[in-house]
Amino acid sequence: GLVVLRAGRDSELALRLGLSLTRTAGYELASLRPMQVSPAHGEDEAIEGLEQVLEHLPEIQDEILLSDDPNRTILEHTKDFDLVVVGAGGRRPADATPDALADLLLSGSDCPVLIVRSGRQPIPELPAELAGVEAISILVDKWFAENTFHSGEFENLERLLHRKEEQGITISLALPALNEEQTVGNVISTIKRALLDEVPLLDEMVLIDSNSTDRTREIARECGIDVYIHQEILPEYGSLQGKGEALWKSLFVTRGDIVLWIDTDIVNIHPRFVYGLIGPLLHRPDLMFIKGFYLRPLRVGKAIQAGGGGRVTELTARPLLNLFYPALSGFVQPLSGEYGGRREALEKLPFSTGYGVETGLLIDMLETFGLDAIAQVDLIRRVHHNQPLTALSKMSFAIIQTVIRKLDRRYGLQLLRDVNRAMKVIRQEASGFFIEVEEVAERERPPMITLPEYRLLFHREAREPAPHD
Fold this sequence. Notes:
By secondary structure, the chain is α/β, with parallel strands linked by helices. It folds into two domains: about 1-135, Rossmann fold; about 155-455, Spore Coat Polysaccharide Biosynthesis Protein SpsA, Chain A. It contains 16 helices and 20 strands. The protein has an eight-stranded mixed sheet with strand order 6-16-11-14-10-7-8-9, sandwiched between helices. A five-stranded parallel sheet has the order 3-2-1-4-5, sandwiched between helices. Strands 13-12-17 form a three-stranded mixed sheet, with no helix packed on it. The chain is globular, with a radius of gyration of 26 Å.
């Protein structure tokens, strides 16, 4: 089948229909983008959104047609196809008839021609060349349908173990923690019993502690897993504060071909939080990164607030991703703490050291490996202790810095160099209001594979356990 792509929303609909036909009728799909030798002002930009989509759809054979008479040339191309899909074109809503190209194909093509027209009304103030940007939703919808899983698909642990053994891979689980004595014991014992002792899906389970001042490390040792303090790992590179720093250093002390992370503040811990992440990676060798999502009710005292949670996601992360990285707009919980991937991918990416680590990894995975290499899985429900608004404000501040850094790198800018990274937090006491200044400087660690110590360690035939406290 052939899809003819031109400016406007009709072409977006034509591409959607063409992709649908490839799934339901088994068509091989090609696209043709006509351009005149001397295009009118804005014509080249008019299908820019469609170009972005086609870059992520390698199954479509895309061709750009340069001609002084593109309509006649397109008609000649249709001789090689069994079906043609084209947008009606023309001005709306008054014009109900196809434009010259669509009319020519209807009357002159030897194969069936489908003429499609979008029912959405155009926005008069929107330049015509921007209309094609909406086509990114085609890519996101396709990705959402093909790369979204449910943890229930992988609850047969013996089958997962068999697949893992067939592939000959190892899996590590690293648990970042800071003062989580109330929940860490239950998290460790639940996962260890189900996925290490009874069905050994995991080859390794470690705690990466950020110098807790409570009993977090002691409880983890009592549960029988290795404990590391992230400030003591790779001391020659110094120590930075933040969860991202702990995750980055966990790549050095773990040994698995797949490395997973889950938070240790989960109140309703269940093995699905881990096997739900493992399943897609074992079933899809092309996947490099998996992200968990779930319903996020908030625990407030003894009460559970349905529908709460995810405030930073909805107010900061999601708007930023939709603005600058719309291909990632299909992620339900882009900031979830349950995720992981293949070491061969993770070791090649930089890590933001603080709260920006989740956002940074998603963006870098997209730009390095493509959207099809990333997936998400429904872990059903997660209960955690909520944080105060001031803490969420600092989290948002860090995420914004991370996105700016990625944009700097993409466009060769230096915006982050000039921005203020000290946050003024407004506090109130009985005597009145006062301002407290806190530094929230989101830094970045280089890809782990650039460290000589790491390269030496992972090129040895016999990998010795890393020292731990």
